[in-house]
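Dear colleague,

Following up on Tuesday's group meeting, I ran the structure prediction for the two-component complex that the binding team flagged. I've pasted the input sequences exactly as they went in, so you can double-check that nothing got truncated or mislabelled along the way. The structure tokens for the whole assembly follow below. Feel free to forward this to whoever is handling the docking comparison.

Inputs:
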Amino acid sequence: MATASFGFLALAALAALLHNAWSNQAWRDTTFLAVNLVFLASFSTDPVAFAPLAGFLALGYAAIQVSRARPSGLVFGVLVVAIVAAFAWLKRYWVFAPIGFIETAYLTLGLSYIFFRVLHLVIDVRSGSIEQPIGLLSYLNYTLNFATLVAGPIQRYQDFSRLHQRLTIIAAGRAVERIVIGLFKVLVLAMILSTVQTQATAELGPGLGLWDRIGTALVSIGIYPLYLYCNFSGYTDIVIGVARFMGLELPENFDRPFSSLNFMEFWSRWHMTLSSWFKAYVYTPLIMFLMSRFSSPRLDLAVGTVTFFITFFLIGLWHGQTFIFVVYGLLLGLGVSVNKIYQTVLARWLGRKRYKALAADPLYRSFARGLTYTWYAATIVCFWASGEEALRILNALGIAGASLGFVALFAASTLVLGVYEALRARILAVSWQDAPLILSRYLRTVWATTLAFVAAASVLLAATPAPDIVYKAF
Amino acid sequence: MTDIAAEDVSGAHRPGAGSALNPPNGPAGSLPRRDLIILPLLSLATLIVLLMFSEIGARLYFAEAIDDSCRIHGTAPGETRDLPNCRSQLKLPEGRMATYSYNECGYRTDAPCGPRPAGVARVALIGSSMVQSYGVSYDEAFATQAERALEKSCGRPVQMENLGAVGNSILGMHHQIGEALGLHPDAVVMMVDPFDVWSLSTYPETASPTDPQTAPPPEAASPDLVHRVEMALKSSRAVFLMQHFLFKNRAFYIKAYLLYGDKADFLRSPLTPAWDERLARFEWLAADMASQAHKAGVPFVLLLGPQQAQAILMSDRHPPAGVDPRAFGRRMAEIAGRHGMILIDSAEAFTPVKHPEDDFFPVDGHPDAEGNAVIAHALVHGLEQGAMAPFAACDASRTAAH
């Protein structure tokens, strides 16, 4: 069942109806689990296909019960390694190829996000951050929450188990608006961008002249981040809106990422819950460990850079099972490491005051924004292209073409994002009753109705369905 | 790109900032009572404006111009024909502007309808809108395409006298057989499609060619509200545009068509009693026509026109369970066999076509220029294979252009 589909919205409506019909917690938990299982069952008719997922959930639940007893570091380490290994094996990571995989087809949908939730529970239960007991019903509802199963956002258990908010007319209105925006992004914007990007990628070949190749690559590589943003943030909007009908406030996953001025900031505004998870469970423990080992202030930059590199390398690695995701991880790690070194060295060289002045300069900010976008667009080729396809693109461009393409993308993104930021600032500056006019409830009602109309029309009129959620594959 | 979603969140970041349902000046979480009325009305008004713009846009994009001033009613029930030496223009919403010029007999043909000149092969076509190639220009009409192809393969002039008229019924076709034979053709081709046969049931049992005064049942005098809404939707070009794109999706079209019930039951095997009855009635009429033709020494050809869903299903290797696009053709073959008719099933010609849905006007349902080309090919092939004197000796390889 696709998230941006009538079936999903109908299931969500049913879930909301059941949830709001009776405020009894047992009723809510039971009906919520029923809806979660119905959603899960929509992906396969073969009960055997669910067995590995059930096994993984059972392992997670057992690990949580063991963690509750505050086991020794060794036992805890074994638990964590077992969960990571089980996840990587079920996801068929290439490193496990020598020992073989399960031959029959089985469901891995949402396994990555379940993995994050399970690990979070195991770690936080042991550390005492989660004190309340976690019952089986609550555990299943948290890990299999139909709104977040496919591709997050990764919600903390503490937030999930918080008393559900009452559904008010304002909350319902906001939820509907959010769902409409999400549907528009997924069904209209993402579909258009995907069509253009796919066409440009197919056209990219040695038969074209150098400038045509660069132009086509510019479209193919430059548009993908925008497409992914519309696809993924649209999905997130839908599920956040849907969850609100059940009183659940899901965390945000995006905060205008293309306005980021550097690569580290970008990752704090893009797939935010993933970055937060890695920050909490990889970056922070790792930097604390390294700083305890290398306590000299002279080594701070090196320790910080290495920690960033390892964290982002793992983020890259998480995205896929094949070797190209090692390259993706290396490029992400390289991006944040260079970013960290550049910031530190430049601040030392210029001094804090001049560095701040430079960072506030509009032209510098525009270039920084453009460079951040360009680097992300270049690294993410590993994400959407297979190894062969990435090589085909590189061969079609050649070294000179790739370099010129990078510069052209940098110039184009600097210009486009600069214009966008300026326009946005102007629009928000138009105010009414001390608030931006664009955010008036009246204008937003008109806007949301228009988006809903266009999204509905595009579903009816489009010859092909919109692409499915990209992160569903993770 | 505006991250509108983030703006929603930003309401929390900027105290006092408004949101769709959180008034800028009101306390957070409250909504002025008037807004409970205003906001839904605003949404409704927006929707109405959008629908109006859609209708205007659709009328511009799918312009329609129908001039049926040449069409007249004949004497038989449901018989239509066109005025001699008349000229009209037609533009279907999904097609291009097509000119209709009728010769001195009222046929959509360039050729004269007088005595057949020596050395000229002549075919008389009778039927309804499909024979007239509704919505398609004269050059693209299957009769014209077939005429050119036959002239090429036979090496002699060929005249296609097209008696077909939009809205003509099978009773009307039966009435026209004498006129067709009066042209002294080498063959009479009667083209019928499943819809023509289905339409027979709109005439009462008593209606027959010898009972010209019998008219189809009148429509309800005062339509109710549901009917009025239905009519309004049918006349909406925005709805038409939506249907156009939906019907281009073959899977959706087939699913939707099969919901038609009785009208779509010719696609199911065995045929229903209602279809058995229609076919029995058709057989009686067609047999009489064939008999008259044979008496005049003229071969009688039954050309089956393709129905859009049928053509799509023909090219589908795995049609839905219980669906048989060849059921209608088989029954027609039995009828043709019983009465010495030559059968040409042009629906079968769509079997190798990869995307038959592209060969029809999606909503209107008539074959477009490409669809007419497929029918022309089937007709030429059928005539050449049909052991009919003027065409049997034609060299089919010369029609390679098709």
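Residues 387-429 of chain A form the longest helix (43 residues).

Cheers,
M.
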